Structures are given as structure tokens and as C-alpha cells.
Amino acid sequence: MYAQLNPALQTKGSIKGVLVDSSTRKPVEAALVNVYPENSTTPVTQLITDNKGIILATDLIPGNYKMTIVLFGYKPIQKDSIRISTAKLNTNLGNILFASTAQQLKGVTITKSKNLVDNQPDKLVYHADNDITNAGGMALDVLKKVPEVAVDNQGNVELQGNSEILVLIDGKSSPATNGNLADVLQAIPADQIDRIEVITSPSAKYDAQGMGGIINIILKKSAAGGISSIINLSGGTRINKGTGAITYRQSKWQLGTNFSGNYYIPSTAINSSYRTSTNNDTTGTLSQNGTSLVGRYNLMAALNFNWDMTPKDNISIHASRYTFEHISDVTNSTVYGITGENNTQNVTGISNTVITYPETNINVDYKHVFDSAGRELDITANYSYNKDEEYADINQSLESSTVPVNPDNYLLDEQDTNVGKETLAVFGADYTQPLGKNTMLEVGGKVTLYNIVSSYAYNVFDTLTHAYTYDPTRSNVFTYNQNVYAGYASLSFKLLKHCHLITGLRYEYTDNNFYLQNSNTYTQTYGNLLPSIIISRKFGNNTLKVSYTYRLERAEFDRLNPFVAVTDGNTVSLGNPNMVPENQYKVDLSYSIVTPSGASFSTTLFYRDQKQDILSYTDIYPEYIVGNDTLHNVSVTEPFNAVEKRTPGISVFGSATLFKNLDIHGNASLMYDYMIILIYPSPPVTDIKYNVNATIDYFFPHEIVAEVFGLFNSPRYTFQGMQPSYSEYSIGIRKQFNHKKGSIGIFSTDPFNKYHNYITNISGTTFTEQSTSSVPYRTFGISFSYQLGVAIKQKAELPPTEDMKD
Fold it and tell me: How far is CA 678 from the centre of its chain?
């Protein structure tokens, strides 16, 4: 009682308010309220409004706070600069108006929210959750709409024209995102993505790997109290998908699971190639025609647990399992010949390949918030394990053979297996310390331990024993160990009134060792000091930003592996253990505009200088020995630190709403590559490349929305040839029902083109080759989505003080 009568001893305060619907002025129940220190991302208080809409956050030390309020069907609210002082401990916000996301505009119901794209000091953020047309798609579909990002027909992703990027899921990487990125992106439902962060100039806090930059996919965290769930189903002529999520949330903890599955209906592509090569005075030709029947499926399941142990301590655990399987049956007819001679040889080849890739990931994150606002400690531990298996059955026979199915008549008959085991362990800690009102210091460290054991086994058919016999001369085991130790310091502060600066320094020490069984051990140790600086200046709603970064790209293990892999009797590939990491410095200058109507535009100029760029080089060998076999007229592909590349470029993005119910957004990039060849004498090679995409959404009455989307990526020229261009367009229409809880739609991709045709040209000092592939692409389908929620009534945990009962 004495403490209540003596204000000097009452050192903790409270925030009070009443949440009401902005239209009906009735209390809003079951909304989730989080109260944060002004410079923190971890809430100190979390509660759910009761049936009177009461918000009451107590036990708050003096300082500046912000409050967020979220509930499905309403536009999120954030209130900043809520002050609690020793002179005024209790703050009453009064009635807080909560606006429904459904706004009636001349009879048309349109879902409106915040900007689709935000340009922040250190990143560009695409709010996928604000683009309702993403429903029913996958992460790869969403990325096609993201500014400065390009996606090709194989699912390869580029950022500002550079494919050497680091893709994170909730800030975490895994072997799957490094080696099977397209499959991972096809396993993440678009409905589960909250936003995508595009970081073209990463600060010192981020790993140095990924010269092209970082794409961080942030998944949704359920905000509504109680039970919420969503299910999505789509079926079509090429792909069938199903996804779902269930979340149970109380005021202090949350448990959720999500899952997805994709089945790609097997389809047949038509392939052909023609190659000429010279050896002394002899010119040889190789012509191939065939088909490939390809099918695959992806499965993903995840379990998430989040617990606010105390107002200052939070722990989250995430476990996931990916499973991918690819199946392909390839039939080729190959004609060998020598110009001027009548001695051609016709060979039929058949290969059946099955690849399975299961991966398990476990992530544990702990966060502690100190009493002083903005001071935080984050500790993380991640573990990933996978065991991928590849099985191939290959045979070749002369077309003139009387009984080509008889194994005794095969020119080549073998069964090959490759079993790889990968483990990745990551341990890290980050500490944030405010230094005054407008200055923040971040320091941290990280240890990454990566191990791969890849076993290759070749079994050749023995015509005497009629059994497959293990061939030790072509089989081996490759072991790869990479340990990276990193530390960083980053300082952010305001310059003058509207200018923000982030500068930092990161050091990474890499320790690699790898070897083939009974062979030499290769060791690579090196340290890299990586500076970065980002300066941004606000002009009202407009932002000017300039940045400088220095980054590197380590060669992947398969590019360092010297094992000789024989795809068929005509194609060989191997790694190069003597390569060094690529490195790059990059400068960005960007300006973004947000108009009073909500339209946004941004332009980025950039220049990057890449050293020791790793590219594959192909050459033709008249003879090539592999184990006890001698291959003839074979193409051999091996990676090298092949070029230095200098690239200026520009990227433009725009988004606007016209006539109140027509949304248009799109982006375009233009780049110029100047390549200096390092591995053989040659004049520089240049390439002008560009990509463009656009989306048009029209909102009809009765909650119907239609969308048209299109993209085009120009051809890519390398120092050895040309990769084909890629284009795609899609149309769709969707109807929402039951207060936007459900939707049903129809869609089509390239409805007037059954096939996409791709032509690839490659040449060397002794050969030229052109390959053509016709891939089925036309798609028709239907999608369905529905979400459910059961709110659980909870009142604030502590009763109001006497002062707040007024």
C-alpha cells in the first residue's frame, strides 16, 4: 500500500487502450497485441484482447515502446513512440480504431494493404502476403515477380543478372538450398510466405558467400490466438499440388506444422544435337536425336515451436524434412561419322535414372532482451543431414544388331550408383548494443562445419558370367570437409537528420581439405577481410541509397571433386581441385519513390568487378582414358577460374493502382558483361543481357480477381557460346467466398504453346555444337484454398491498477 501511495517507488508503468472496429465501433475480440521496446524486434509483453477489446500491458520499465496489433481480416496496426516515464508511468491510448481489410469502393470489394515493395536501408522487401494473386502458387512462382530477380525454365535464380546467390529460409541456409534450390522453392507454398528480402549489398552481419547477393524468404508466423489452419489444392495437366498448415497459439507459446507435396506428371521432351570436331586433318561429326521422359515429386513437412519463457527470453525450434525424387528415361540415337568417308556408325542408347534426395533440418534459436531498449542477444544452432542416392542403368547397342535387347550385343551395359551423405552444423551468436539514441553496434561470431562423403560405384555387365561386376578402376569415394570461422562488427547510426549509415567489417577463415580414396589430399586455407558500407538518405517518402560491398564465392564440392564421371560413351565431366575462390567488389546507387496515392518506383544503378570467376570449359578429345576404358571422340567438361568479369547494369521497378481496381507492377534489368578470358589467349567477350516481367491484376465485383503475368529473359552469352532465352506468360481468375476464407480459381500457363524450344550453342578451338530441346510447358489447372480459425478468449494476465480504472 505504501508503494501505491508513494509515486517515487512505483518504477514500472503500463499501457492501456480499447480496440474497436473502425466501421461498427464495436470492441474487437481475439486480436494479438505485442509490445516492444522501440528499437527491438522481441516483445516484452504479449496478450489477446477480450470480448470488451481491452488492451492492458503492465510491468513496463520507463522507456520508449511500440505496439503491434494483428487479427485475420483486419489491417495490422503499429503504434510507435509510446512513452513511459517516471513522471507519467501509465499511458492511456483510448479507443484504437481497427480497420477491416475489405474496403468498399463503388461496389467493388478490393483487398488493400501496405506497399507491395519497401526499400529499406539495407534491403528491398517484397511483401508477398500483400499480393493475393500469389495464392495457390509456390515460392518459385513468387520469385518471378520480385524486383531485380530473374528465374529461368530450369528454376535457376539470378539477382541483378548473377546466379551466384545465397538463398535463406527464415535467415537459415541448408545443403538443399545450395544444391537443390529449384526443388526447395517448388516445395514452399506461396501462401506460407510473408515477405521476401532482396539484399543486393549485404552488411557485415551476413555470410560472405554469394557474390550476387542474398534472397531471404521469411515464412508467416501465425498472429491470431487459438487454432488456425489453411489448406491449398491445385490440379492441372502438368503439376498437382497440395499444401496445408495448422497452428495453435496461446499468449506465450505457439505450436504449428505445415506440409506440401508436388507431383509433376511425367512428360516427354524432344532433344537433338549436332557436333563437328577436327583432329589434325580429320573432321568428325556426331549427331544425336532422342527423347527424355521426366517426372518428379517433392514433399516437405515442418514442425515449429515458439515459447516466450519470460518477457525477456524466447526460444524457437524448427524441424523440417524435404524429400525430392527425379525419374528420367532417355533414349538417344547417335550417328558417328568422319567427313569424306563412308564409315558412319549408328548407336542406340537407353538410360534410366532415379535420384532421391531426403534432407532433415533442425534449428534452435534463443533470444534474450535486456532491460535497456534495443539491447539483445541471439544464439542459434542449426543441424542438417541428407543422404542422396542416384541410380542409373545405361546401355548402348548397334542399330544393326539383330537382337539389340540381348545384353551380349550391347556396346555398353552398366549400372551406376552415387550415394552422398552431407552434414552441416552451424553455431552462431549475435549481440546488439545501443550506443546513444541513434547509434547501434552489432557484433557476432559464427562457426560452420560442413562434411560430405560421396561414394561412386560402377558395375559393368560381364557377357561371360551374365552378371554385373564391380569396376574398381572407375569407382571411388570422395571426402570433403569445409570449416568456416567468422566474426563481424557492424555500426549503424544517423548522420544529420535524415541520413542513415551502416558500416561494418567481417572476417572469415576457411579451412578446406578433400580427397579421393587412395589419392592425394588437397588442402586450402585462407582468410578474407570483407568491408561493407551503406548510406541512405530520406527525402519525405523517397529514399536515395549508395552502397559498397566486397564478397566471395567458394567453389562447390562437386566442382572441386577430381573424380571422372562418364554420362555415356560421349560425355565426361570432372572437377578441378586447384581452383581458388571467386571474389567481387560491387557498388550500388538506388533511388525509390512512393507517391501519395501509394504507387512506388525504384531505380538501381550497379557496377560489379568479379575476379577468378568459375566457369565450365568443354573440349573434345579424340581419345580419353577412364579406368581401363578408352573413349573416342568424347566431350570433356571441367571447371576453371576462367574469366574476369566487369558488369555495369540498371534495374527498374514500378507498382501502381489505376482506376481503383487495376493493379500493375513489373520490373526490368539491363546488364553489360565484359569478360577477359584467363585460360587461353582470346580477345574479350561481351554480352548485353536483359530481363523484364509484368503483372496486371483486375479486381471485379463480388470478390473476383483476374491476373495476367509475363516474363522474358534474353539469351546469355558465355566465353564458349550462348544459353537460350526464356519466356513465359500465364493467366488466371479466382473467386473468394465465405468472407474471404476460401477461394477457387482456374489458371493456365502458355495456353497456346505446347512446347518451349531452346537452342544452345557452344564452341571451342576444335569443335562447334548446337543442341535443341523441346520441352512440354502448356498447363491448365484449377486451385482451391480455405482457411479456418478458432479464437481462444484470453484476458490480460494482470488486473489494471487503480489509476487505470478511471
Answer: 31
Distance between CA atoms of residues 493 and 108, nearest Å: 45
Query: Could you tell me if 34 and 60 are in contact, meaning their C-beta atoms sit under 8 angstroms apart?
Result: no
Q: Of 788, 787, 792, which is closest to residue 48 (Cα–Cα)?
A: 792
Report how far residue 711's alpha carbon sits from residue 690's, in angstroms, rounded to the nearest whole number: 11
* Nearest C-alpha neighbor of 147 from the set 648, 589, 651: 651
CA proximity to 699, closest of 737, 660, 740, 730:
660
Segment (H or E) for 485: strand 476-495
The set of cell numbers assigned to 330 is 532417355
pLDDT single digits (tens) 359-379: 999 999 999 988 777 789 999
pTM here is 0.81
Residue-level pLDDT at 9: 44
Q: Report the DSSP beta bridge partners of residue 222.
A: none
> What is the distance, to the nearest Å, from the Cα of residue 467 to the centroid of all Cα atoms in its chain?
45
- Pairwise CA distance, residues 669 & 149, whole Å: 9
d(C-alpha 507, C-alpha 489), whole Å? 9
Instruction: Give 112's DSSP letter.
Output: -
Q: Tell me the C-alpha distance between 368 and 516, whole Å.
A: 45
Residue 236 one-letter amino acid = G
More confident residue, 259 or 789: 259
- Look up cell 480496440; give the residue: 19
Instruction: Report the 10 Å Cβ neighbour count for 42.
Output: 17
Do residues 451 and 175 make contact, with C-beta atoms less than 8 angstroms apart? no
Distance CA 69, CA 53 (A): 12
Q: Strand pairing partners for 61?
A: none
631: which 3 cell numbers?
573413349
